[in-house]
Every structure is written in structure tokens, then in C-alpha cells.
# Entry
Amino acid sequence: MFLAKDHCLGLAFHDIHIIFFQGKGLFAKKNINKGDVIFEETPIVSTQFLWNELYKYKACEYCMKSLETAEEQARRLSTNPHLSLPHPECDITDQSPYVDCPGCQVTYCCELCRKTALDEYHQVLCMGPSRLSEDNDHPLARLQETWRNIHYPPETSSIMLIVKMVALVKQAKDKSTVLQKFSQFVKNTVNEEDEIVHKLLGKQFQEQLELLRQMTADFIFEENVSQWFTPEGFRSLFALIGTNGQGIGSSSISVWVKNCEDLAIPDEEKEQLDAFIDQLYEDMDKVSGTFLDCEGSGLYLLQSTCNHSCIPNAEITFPNNNHKLVLVAKENISQGEEICTCYLSECDVSRSRHSRQKFLK
# Structure
């Protein structure tokens, strides 16, 4: 499919499908069929939620790919160390390319992700050997702990999005290009900002916001974005990630399930496999509830321009088991029609036999 680059957004997208109008909104350039991929997009920045990471949901630090095998993940989530998944050929997890940062030992799914992270932001965020120490007193570790004590599960955002935004600017050779990308996200009024920050941080949001601002500035102040570190600027940053942050989910189990569903096997065996999978999800639900995936958040320029609807005609998916977002048409979309999505929480579906994958469709 022909991809064109929009020079305003700095993104590659499916030009035959969409046209970007001034203001917020995406519209179909031609008729789109149900099931068509409308566009694919990687985020400017993404991060795993901090509680999710603390509870051993293993994901690539850069692309958020689920690092466990499907069987490892199923055993952990069900607390059944003897669990064995049928059809191991459906688990395509390849752990051989995994590589750790030589400084802090954080894990990446491949050398490309490690190098990209290092080039973009990890030089200034690497905590070195202190990351693995029990009494880690690194400024970033203290900031992360403070965030966890403010923002409990279910998580919807992370202070690390802001930290990585600053790090991207700090490490960028062409800082104006990075800043231009961030400037294109939706802005809010002061009242809207307060409402968003209140939702993220709770009743004492003003005191907590000030604490986070001071700790972030102490760790990673950047002169080129000094306005971000003022009380007003920091509040605006929080509102930006609250408004534009897109939830991300990856799961090796979901990939295994999808591949199992595509197996060409006899009906009787198919019924047995479906029953096994349904029981597996029941077992995991008893132990882990709805927290089955590696979860995080990211900032996507093109996706952020989509308006939301209670009856969306497009669906956000993560079929690659990483942070690459794929927007798929849920129904036929006519030329000139606006392309709308729903909030992730509204998109969540029950894990029945036909719709058990929360994020990976």
C-alpha cells in the first residue's frame, strides 16, 4: 500500500485512505472497507506503567514488546508453575535477540531497540548499577517511587512520559523538530487542565503536582524547555499527556491465542482448545483480574487527531505485540466521512471465546 509522508505532521500514513483537515479530525479520502488498515503509527514517546513494571510484567523498555513466552506469562498470571500450553508452535516469541543495557541492565527485545533508546533518551535516563540495588537512591528512582505512591492501579498515565519528553529534547541534535512535534498536540484551557490533573492525581493534586515538578526539575531540568518547569508549564504537560496519551497493551498470550484461533484443526479438537483457553482466562482472572497485559501509554501524533465517538467506525489495535498502533476500520467508511475511535476503556471487551483479547484484535 502506498505510503505518503505528511510534511506538517512528519508522519508516514496510508495516503489513499485519509486526509488531514485543519483543526482536529481525520476524514476518509476515499471509501474504506470494514477490516482495512487505515494507518499504522509508532509513538513519539512511550513508556510502561510503573506499577505494571514493578509487578514483573516484562516488556521491552523501548517498544513495549511483551518479553515473556506465552507459557511463562500464563504460569505467572495463573500462579501455576506446571501449566503447559498446547500448540507451542503458536507461540512465536523469540527470546534470542534480547539484550540488556550494559549500564542499568534494563532489557530490550533487540539491539535496534536498545540503540534507538540510547540515541533518543536513555543516555540521560540510565540509572547505572544503582537501578538494581535494594536501596536505590537515584533521583529518577525516587521520582518513580513518588509517582507510584500517588497514582495507584488501575494506571492511566505515567510521570515517565514527561521525563522521556524532556530527555528527547535534551539529547536531540535538532531540538526544534522535537519541540514542533510536541506543539501539535491538543492544548487545553486552564480549567480543563485542572480537571485533567485532578483526575490523574486525586484530591490533593496541587500539592502533588508541585512535588512532582520539583523532583522532575531536580533530576532532568532542560534550559531549552525551561517553560515546562514552571508551575503553569508543568500543569500543561500533565494535561497534554492526560488528553493525548494513548493506552498501549502487549501480551504474548494474546498472540498465542490469535494464532491458535487461526489453526486448521478438526472441529472436535478446536472445541477442546477453545475450552482450554476459556479455562485459562478464568484461572488468570482469579489471580490477576483484568491486569493481564504489559500496559503503558504513548503519544501518537496522527492518532491524537482522531475524534472520539460512542459509536466509533475505527478501532485502535496493537497486533504486533509492541507499541506500533494500527487503526482498523470497524465498518465501511464512506468518502468524506470522519474517522472516529473510542477511548480505550470503552473499547475493552469481555474475554469470551470470540473476543478475549483486550488490546490485540
User: Anything to note?
Assistant: The longest helix spans residues 267-288. Confidence is low (pLDDT under 50) at residues 1-16, 344-361. The CA atoms of residues 226 and 233 lie 9 Å apart. The radius of gyration is 21 Å.
